[in-house]
Amino acid sequence: MSLFKRVLAIETSCDDTSVAIVRHDAWVEAVVSANQDLQHAPFGGVVPEIASRNHTLQILPLIEETFKKSGLNWSQIDGVAVTNRPGLVGSLIVGLVVAKTVAQTKNIPLIGVNHLEGHIMAPFLKDSEYAPAENFSFPMIVLAVSGGHTSIYRANDFSEYEILGVTKDDAAGEAFDKFGKMLGLGFPGGVKVDQLAALGKSDAYIFPRGLIHEENLQMSFSGLKSAAQRVVEKIHPEELPKHLPDLCASFREAVVDALLSKLDRAVTQTKIKNVVITGGVSANSRLRERATEWAKHKKLILQIPPLRYCTDNAAMIGLVGIRRLNKGEASHLTLGPSPSSWPQDFS
Ligand code: KG4
Ligand code: ZN
User: Fold this and answer.
1) pLDDT at position 232 over 90
2) Which domains does the chain have, with CATH numbers?
3) Minimum mean pLDDT range among 70-79, 191-200, 212-221
4) Mutate to test the pocket of ligand 1, among 115, 191, 225, 307 (most ligand atoms within 8 A of CB)
5) What is the pLDDT of residues 52-84, one digit of tens each?
6) For residue 255, which atom of ligand 1 is closest to its CA?
7) Ligand 1 proximal residues by C-beta, below 6 Å
8) In whole angstroms, how far apart are CA 271 and each of 268, 277, 299, 330?
């Protein structure tokens, strides 16, 4: 079996359009992404039709830019990797159509990738500014926390993953965004909540930490959102600005407590020392600070990839794709989109 040296990778599962070229040793030759926050902001959330329409506008220029940035040409590309699950079907279709066209016209194999496997593998990516710690390896516990997902995985090896726990309702990023919307901070509100929280007291309000006392690794953020709503409704709109820092600090602390308590349980239950935090919410400054302290105290190897590999990106899809191609796997051109993972993706 010949070695696949480089793949072109395409990610369009939600509202980020991303293209990358990734080498077999996880080196990212180039990654270029375009987010659509401005287009979705007036609606306070991702509108699927707007997302797919923007993917169609952005994808071809992004491919061109990726080649330009990497200095490579088509003859140096051995395969094409594309996210085909889980995600918004209309968005996935855009990436799939482009990837299949590339596979056929360039006569190279196609490989469909599970987006969540991309997030799990992201810490192994490398570029001129990032590489995982030398002693970091499988098995690992992964907390993937974004606007669309909040899950804890056990990854025993490449392509051997187990879901240990997921949120029963809202994702943590979604909770931050809904809270931000309640406070009139715009969409997505996570970053602004984080910034305002830096000026407030985290014990000013006591918000619920969903399912924190349950032994299992399930999570929940809808109770927190409702509790916050009740508190905000009692504050006179004119008084709201002066309460924002304390509200944000208290809300942020509740989310971080809920996430870290479950991550701690996962590590205690499995005795695994390698831990990853990934997804857009890993940008949260308090989560980073507390997770770093926790890992030091517990003597864990904590890897939080740089934000460009934590948020939705094609580099992580390329890494999974090229490793699968090099294992002898490939997808048929009939590959379709799926809103959910395939049963065989996780045990
Ligand atoms: O991974 P991502 O870019 O997209 C997906 O949701 O898949 O994550 C975006 C999410 C949004 O919910 C955003 O509000 C949240 O990550 N986020 C943050 C911060 N930065 C981004 N949440 C809390 N604190 C932050 N600093
Ligand atoms: Zn994602």
Assistant:
1) yes
2) 6-130+309-326 (3.30.420.40), 140-304 (3.30.420.40)
3) 212-221
4) 191
5) 999 999 999 999 999 999 999 999 999 999 999
6) 23
7) 14, 146-148, 173, 176-177, 188, 190-191, 194, 279-281, 283-284, 311-312
8) 5, 17, 11, 35
